[in-house]
Amino acid sequence: MQAAFLVAPEGTEEVELTRPWQAVTDAGGGPTLVSTHAGKVQAFHHLDKANTFPVDLTVDEATAADFDGLVLPGGVANPDALRLDRRAVAFIKSFFDAGRPVAAICHAPWTLIEADVVRGRTLTSWPSLRTDIRNAGGTWVDEQVKICTAGPNTLITSRKPADLEAFCAAFVSEFSH
Q1: Parallel, antiparallel, or unpaired for β 2-7 and 30-35?
Q2: What is the average pLDDT score of the chain?
Q3: Of 37, 45, 107, 177, catalytic
Q4: N or C terminus: which one in the chain shows less Cβ crowding within 10 Å?
Q5: Which superfamily is assigned to 2-175 in CATH?
């Protein structure tokens, strides 16, 4: 199982990167950190700086065909930055176009909205995205993890760090198919 983790150069909620990363590793898979710029990314614990992590590939170097699935960690600033980068949005959309699964947690569905891939889909997120998801044509639910197959791919979403155990189990199972 090869999983791409797409994050902005700064603003990712650290636990939403590290716990899913560890889940992929524990399942015998290979996680790859993809970002919009080479070098390192700065993770956060809420609003405080946390650790940095080395970027493996930029969005210009990675393709959906190289991976079994895409993980989109949250943090408020991370998806907000990614949705302003057309290359990052195109990378996300390419997983939907290729029928490959995508897993997004917390604020990460903002990037899905920007990629115009939530119409007709049912998903969950941090509660403040509820109206954004509805306005983009999606159905928002308040569930620990939501697996939606009503589209070209499987979409796995969760609300917050407290949902990470269920989120990781769901996407690892889907990516392993």
Answers
A1: parallel
A2: 98
A3: 107
A4: C
A5: Class I glutamine amidotransferase (GATase) domain (3.40.50.880)
